[in-house]
Prior knowledge:
Catalyzes the complex heterocyclic radical-mediated conversion of 6-carboxy-5,6,7,8-tetrahydropterin (CPH4) to 7-carboxy-7-deazaguanine (CDG), a step common to the biosynthetic pathways of all 7-deazapurine-containing compounds. The chain is of the alpha/beta class. Helix content is about 25%, strand content about 25%. The protein has helices spanning about 55-60, 70-80, 100-110, 145-150, 160-170, 190-200, 210-215, and strands at about 1-10, 20-30, 70, 85-90, 110-115, 130-135, 150-155, 180-185, 205. Strands 3-1-2-4-5-6-7-8-9 form a 9-stranded mixed β-sheet. The longest helix has 14 residues, at about 190-200.
Amino acid sequence: MHYPINEIFQTIQGEGYYTGTPSIFIRLQGCPVHCHWCDTKYTWVCSDKENVSIKEVINKNQVSKKWSYLTINDILETLKKWTAKHVVISGGEPCLYNLLYITKILEKKGYQCQIETSGIKNIICSLNTWVTLSPKKNIRPLNESIIRSNEIKFPILKKEDLLYVYDILSNIKDKKKRIIYLQPISQNKKALNICMNICMKKNWKLSVQLHKYINIQ
Length: 217
Ligand code: SF4
């Protein structure tokens, strides 16, 4: 089994529940959602023209549209270079792909897995994988994705974005404990104030994209 991978690197998780955790990011190629403020636009399309060698992807030192298919063995071999035991499978939209096999194997090798998804596709992964759902206004997440999520992180730019948050949350009928985060888009000051005010009112959490503030990948 192989996965189209845009980049793989160790860093500090900057968002949501695992903020501050040393993490290895596996960024999969492909995303049909196309948010206008997306900061990984280079992952949107799996173009044959950009399909390069595994070595080129593993050794990337700047972002690009280049990607390569890596097998689980290629991935495990690459992970050996790093110390982190937390793996974030991100994108693009990682749930375009069946992630059951990779998450199970990684867990067997002692890694905790996390998936970051917009929720537009079924989330197929191990039971222990931590699922971060980040719904986007342009495409509603599937109900199954909402139910599977462990945390829901809403990107917020303006007050009207909260209507979408309330709409999604009011339709959740199960009793599962989920952590709710508001995350200002692109470190926008006004958005930060909106998020802080609502988090305090609702007792939700604030996610500030720590990596952007400390200037790491
Ligand atoms: S869902 Fe994520 S990767 Fe896809 S366009 Fe939106 S922000 Fe970018």
